[in-house]
Design a protein that fits this description.
46% of the residues lie in helices and 12% in strands. The chain is α+β, with helices and mostly antiparallel strands. It folds into 2 domains: 14-142, Nucleoside diphosphate kinase-like domain (Alpha-Beta Plaits), CATH 3.30.70.141; 154-195, cAMP-dependent Protein Kinase, Chain A, CATH 1.20.890. Helix 2 crosses helix 3 and helix 8 (154-179) crosses helix 9 (184-194). It starts with 12 loop residues before the first strand and ends with a helix. It is found in: Cytoplasm, Cytoskeleton, Flagellum axoneme. One of its GO terms (biological process) is negative regulation of oxidative stress-induced intrinsic apoptotic signaling pathway. Pfam families: Dpy-30, NDK.
């Protein structure tokens, strides 16, 4: 029987993590744990939100009984916002966090981050986006300058590879075979940098001084 090979896909997700004010001093410890768990930290910033900004960030909780205390807690001191990336970043980060109630987390998930660092139902130490769409919203809120391109999967990923990646890579591999360099990996890396079709092209502008 002919084996059907799985079609290639791109598995990359980003999520937002927040080290909340009550464990701000544990920043290095938390970041070390994040890196050892297979995440990349793409962006990081330290900031302090106003109560109004917290209200906007947690607008989906508006009207709930804990909402005023939540905004007061989140605006009570500095925090660290992190953009994390890895395969299944959203679900894996939430799995590491454990239940949102730190008291419950200590009973049911004693090794989770909220069990280890959280205090109670409100002061649960860390934030994690609830879904991929929520992660995009959260990241844009904390990093308004971030460029979030949609991550292609399935047929869109294959189309992207066929249109933008394979032609350049094929040309590079062909040139590599003709050149036969001593260190093929370094040579190919240099070739791809040099022939990157998306490399910005600088246009020399003639100034009025030069024109004269």
């Amino acid at each position: 029987m002919q084996m059907v090979m799985p079609k290639p896909q791109i598995f990359v997700e980003r999520t937002l993590a927040i080290i909340k004010p009550d464990i701000f001093d544990k920043e290095e410890e938390i970041e070390d744990y994040i890196l050892r768990s297979g995440f990349l930290i793409l962006q990081k910033r330290k900031l302090q939100l106003s109560p109004e900004q917290c209200s906007n960030f947690y607008a989906h909780h508006y009207g709930k009984v804990f909402f005023p205390n939540l905004t007061a807690y989140m605006s009570s001191g500095p925090l660290v916002a992190l953009v994390l990336a890895r395969h299944r970043a959203v679900s894996y980060w939430r799995e590491l966090l454990g239940p949102s109630n730190s008291i419950k987390a200590r009973r049911t998930h004693p090794h989770s981050l909220r069990a280890l660092y959280g205090t109670d139902e409100l002061r649960n130490a860390l934030h994690g986006s609830a879904s991929i769409s929520a992660a995009e919203r959260d990241i844009r809120f904390m990093f308004p300058e971030a460029i979030l391109e949609p991550i292609p999967v399935g047929q869109r990923a294959r189309d992207y590879l066929n249109l933008y990646i394979k032609p350049t890579l094929l040309a590079g591999l062909t040139a590599l075979c003709k050149e036969k360099p001593a260190d093929p990996m370094i040579w190919l890396a240099d070739w791809l940098i040099e022939h990157n079709p998306n490399k910005p092209k600088l246009q020399h502008c003639i100034t009025e001084e030069e024109h004269q």
